[in-house]
Amino acid sequence: MRTGGGVGMTAPVPATVRTPGRVEVEFRSRASLRLRIAHALLRATLRPAVDALSVLAERTPLRGDPAFRIANAADLAAYPLRAARGTRRAPVRFAGFRAEWLWHRDHPGPGEPAAGVILYFHGGGFLTGGLHSHRRLAARIARTAGTALLNVDYRQLPVAHLTDSVEDAVTAYRYLLDRGIPAERVVFAGDSAGGGLAFAAALAARARGIALPAAIAAIAPFADLDPAIRRDHPNDRRDALLSARSLTVPALIGFARDGVLDPMWSPVNHDFAGMPPTLIQVSDSEVLLPDAEALARRCAEAGVPHTLQIWNNAIHVFHAGADVLPDARAAIADLADFVRRALDSGAVAGDVDRTTAA
């Protein structure tokens, strides 16, 4: 498989491609047997179900808002998904949305800002998912990184537009800064729609003159609302969970105004000058691979330190299966190591700034 824009991809092998001015790609090793089995099972079961729900939201009397409200309810069904033992939680209320602190009892909590914070945005296509669906995954990331995490339950369709979701993300970031947490001690992270939102929030912060976070870590980011490139991509047939069609629903039915999408709503259409170091993790078989590649190209064009980490035959946000998938545990460990290095670098930079000021 090859892609445009200077990113050459062949069968995944354990290698890192680093060329100045070009996308830095790290191919992970071949998928484990468990991951290959999971991919085949989900491709035969969940993928048809997701496609059927897309038809329901497109072509039936439930089109649009009614279908979105049904999708919103999915987070309640995820209530039984508990975080691992030892996880501590603390709710945070904002005007119009909520969030939740997560940290492990053996690590610094939100009352210790010097330790750093992950600001996390959950996935769900901007119409499903929330604190319940992502609590276990977010808590695992926090524990592996050894820091506190603020999981943001931003507003979604049908009550909010993408621009409202971005506003909520920036509000949550300002909340951290107002608590005295320096920008260099914050890492934006998220999966799927939340991965795209992490970039959108950083771009919005930059536009407002707000100090940018230390880094961005994105899992399979949904960052291009235009469905054209995904429709033509071979992964539209290979993805175990999502299709190009399923991702057109929030974009064209939910966000488009008079059938038109503003290109500036998609992070892939922005200049990334000044953006923080970035890690993007994605599967070589998922339909959001083009989004991840486009984000990595924007980083390369702007000279932003980055790594596009490509996992073999993985399921969309396979990290959520870390209880049973060794590949997922390895991916979370890589993400946590990136977060830790970014926060440690931020701590050093902060110490230098304070010394200079003195």
TrEMBL record:
Matches recorded under SUPFAM superfamilies: alpha/beta-Hydrolases
Active site: 192
Principal EC category: hydrolase
Chain ranges of the Alpha/beta hydrolase fold-3 domain: 118-319
UniProt keywords, alphabetically: Hydrolase
Enzyme Commission no: 3.1.1.83
GO MF term list: triacylglycerol lipase activity
Pfam families for the chain: Abhydrolase_3
Family of this protein: Belongs to the 'GDXG' lipolytic enzyme family.
Protein's recorded name: Monoterpene epsilon-lactone hydrolase
Taxon lineage: Bacteria, Bacillati, Actinomycetota, Actinomycetes, Mycobacteriales
Name of the coding gene: mlhB_4
